[in-house]
Specification:
Layout (H helix, E strand, L loop, with lengths): L2 H10 L3 E4 L3 E5 L11 H12 L6 E7 L8 E11 L15 E7 L2 H16 L5 E12 L5 H11 L4 E6 L10 E6 L2 E6 L2 E5 L1 E6 L4 H13 L1 H18 L3 E5 L4 E4 L3 E5 L2 E5 L6 H8 L7 E2 L1 H11 L10 E5 L5 E5 L3 E5 L2 E10 L5 H19 L3
Antiparallel strand pairs: 1-2, 1-7, 2-4, 3-4, 3-17, 5-6, 6-16, 6-20, 7-8, 8-19, 9-10, 9-18, 10-15, 11-14, 12-15, 13-14, 17-18, 19-20
Helix pairs in contact: 2-7, 3-9, 4-9
Bound molecules: the ligand C=C(O[C@@H]1C=C(C(=O)O)C=C[C@H]1O)C(=O)O.
Enzyme class: isomerase
GO molecular function, one term: isochorismate synthase activity
Keywords: Isomerase
């Protein structure tokens, strides 16, 4: 059987998949959850749960935005192959038809939430808050996770495309997280750690001159640089106790097919290789790219103003092996799938100077990553 078909079959059978530019990890078979009643507890118990496991076994899956709620990290054998996933072409005929789409909250409600967050910023309660909204697509038939994944991979080869079962994948009604994240939370290989936080964004334009104008405007934007700086400062501060060196250069531009971002490629060297990838996830998450600054005050504002259950959206998704090495991305450009329902999430950072209508447009552009994959013909 061709490898692509084998992977397609594995995904249909409930595999966890992370397909990046350089390699693809597929975890298959019946696989128990890492013990722990919350995402934080699962992260804390992952390294011990892998102790003594056979080479090739990894902990893979998702922890939620709110680490006090349950996570979905599973223990089981995984295979890693070079390059991104190749799945057989899906063909239009197998796609579901969207019967109903519903933005929650509607765009005007989201703009009101942004204004409420700006009120809290101006009152001095908080400096940055990331607010999200959703688009719910109800299809005539069940969504196909392998088809969604195949479209996400082929449209976003530079991102980490992912399919993660949030419930037992053997259950017919299992929920899944699917998406194509451009944001590396961290990669740990031995003592070396690489991170690439994103924050500060502008929608792409199909017109090349306008697209370049927007990229230049983003690079020059004081508002976006401030929005970005909160993330870099928080990441450097969270890493410092674990690291002998942390290097954070100036931000650069990165593009997805839908959005321009400011990105900083941060490199660090661990003091001690007893620090595993999940220790770093627990220390870093949620960064101000998805939460805000200061963290606790921002989480309060999100709870009061946003009104969504984020679940694993804006959580951390990835894997760790028996050596403590691993790779985790921030669960953005993602959706929750269950049966005929697809719930696309997108958020945007709000700081002093943010414009509510621009944040509506930015979140709409971010939703296109999953939306275009879902409604592809
Ligand atoms: C919150 C999301 O994206 C995050 C927020 C960004 C921003 O506010 O500019 C940029 C990239 C991500 O860190 C999302 O896509 O839902």
């Amino acid at each position: 059987m061709a490898e692509a078909e084998a992977v397609a079959l594995a995904v249909r059978a409930g595999a966890t998949v992370f397909s990046g530019e350089k390699s693809t990890l597929v975890q298959t078979g019946p696989r128990p959850l890492v013990p722990g009643g919350s995402g934080l507890e699962q992260l804390r118990r992952t390294t011990a749960a892998l102790d003594g496991a056979q080479t090739g076994v990894v902990a893979a899956g998702a922890v939620p935005f709110d680490l006090s709620t349950p996570g979905a990290l599973r223990l089981g054998p995984a295979e890693t192959t070079p390059g991104h996933l190749t799945l057989p072409p899906t063909g239009g005929g197998r796609r579901s038809t969207v019967a109903r789409s519903r933005p929650v909250p509607p765009p005007a409600g989201y703009a009101d939430a942004v204004r409420a967050a700006l009120g809290r910023i101006h009152a001095g309660d908080v400096e940055k808050v990331v607010l999200a909204r959703t688009l719910e697509l109800e299809a005539l038939d069940e969504w196909s996770v392998p088809d969604l994944l195949a479209e996400l991979v082929s449209r976003n080869p530079a991102a980490t495309a992912l399919a993660v079962p949030l419930d037992d994948p053997a259950d017919a009604g299992a929920r899944w997280l699917v998406g194509a994240s451009p944001e590396l939370l961290l990669r740990r290989r031995g003592p070396s750690v690489l991170l690439r936080p994103l924050a500060g964004s502008i929608p792409r334009s199909p017109e090349p001159d306008e697209d370049m104008r927007r990229a230049d405007a983003l690079m020059a934007s004081d508002k976006d640089r401030r929005e970005h700086r909160f993330v870099v400062d928080a990441v450097v501060e969270a890493l410092s106790p674990f690291c002998r060196t942390v290097n954070a250069p100036e931000p650069e531009l990165v593009a997805t097919p839908a959005v321009w971002h400011l990105a900083t490629r941060i490199t660090a060297l661990l003091n001690d290789t007893d620090t595993t990838s999940v220790d770093l996830v627990a220390a870093l998450h949620p960064t101000p790219a998805v939460g805000g600054s200061p963290r606790r005050a921002a989480l309060d504002v999100i709870r009061e103003v946003e009104g969504l259950d984020r679940g694993c959206y804006a959580g951390a998704v990835g894997w760790q092996d028996v050596h403590g090495d691993g790779e985790w991305v921030v669960a953005v450009r993602c959706a929750e799938v269950q049966g005929r329902t697809l719930r696309i999430f997108a958020g945007a950072g709000i700081v002093d100077g943010s414009d509510p209508d621009a944040e509506v447009a930015e979140t709409a552009a971010k939703m296109r990553t999953v939306l275009d994959a879902a409604i592809a013909r």
